[in-house]
Design brief:
Length: about 240
């Protein structure tokens, strides 16, 4: 089974070459057939030039920043594997999750990493404000969409590629709430989803404002809900 790994990159010129090597080394260790897709999300630094210089990867770019969800969508559209996985460029999720994902892949349409499952391990916690906001987001998302997930926002998720391509055709959100949109589409189309505990460490270098991103996140949740009728795979678009 070939695995496509999509890594959205925004201003990642400092670490992406090193982290791409870590990913490739892990996949070679696992003897996993793969393609590594690095998507430059309209970075302001020289991320584009850096990813294009890395051997053995598929480097994709566009000029205007689309948001993480937009970068993941573009990567999935260009994926050629049987299963597609997307992860954060900072490698906050331990790469041992790849092995377990591929073991579970034949049994599920979608596998989502979870920082709050019983078997998850948090090596480095987030600051208190981010922990509180995350808790509020989980409660609101589960209530609004009638989910029962412990973590919708972990940046490690995998899907059958044929299904992933159907999902991104329906995708309307390109910011952080796109994870919720994917799970909502999965629910409405009766897809099988497995929530998998991961080993995770907080990225202390994150420049994302928790308050500003949360406001946008909450607005996007209502936007997703309004598009419910458009999410069926049976509906022509």
């Amino acid at each position: 089974m070939k695995l496509s790994i999509v890594v959205p990159c925004y201003n990642e010129s400092k670490d992406i070459a090193k982290n791409a090597k870590i990913i490739k080394d892990k996949l070679e260790e696992l003897k996993q057939d793969y393609e590594l897709i690095l998507v430059n999300d309209g970075s302001k630094d020289n991320t584009k030039e850096v990813i294009e210089s890395i051997e053995g990867v598929k480097a994709l770019s566009y000029d205007a920043n689309r948001g993480k969800g937009g970068a993941v969508k573009y990567g999935i559209e260009n994926a050629t594997g049987d299963y597609v996985l997307f992860m954060d460029a900072d490698l906050s999720t331990d790469l041992e999750a790849i092995k377990r994902t591929m073991e579970l892949a034949p049994s599920y349409d979608m596998i989502i990493g979870s920082r709050h499952a019983k078997d998850s391990v948090i090596k480095k916690k987030q600051p208190a404000l981010r922990v509180f906001i995350g808790w509020c987001c989980r409660k609101l998302v589960n209530m609004k969409f009638h989910f029962n997930y412990k973590d919708t926002q972990c940046g490690f998720k995998a899907m059958r590629t044929d299904i992933a391509k159907k999902i991104v055709k329906k995708q309307v959100v390109t910011n952080f709430a796109f994870d919720v949109e994917y799970l909502y589409i999965a629910k409405l189309n009766n897809l099988s989803v497995y929530e998998m505990g991961v080993i995770w460490s907080d990225d202390r270098g994150s420049t994302v404002s928790p308050l500003k991103s949360s406001i946008k996140f909450f607005k996007d949740l209502s936007f997703i809900k309004k598009h419910k009728k458009t999410y069926s795979f049976d509906e022509a678009k």
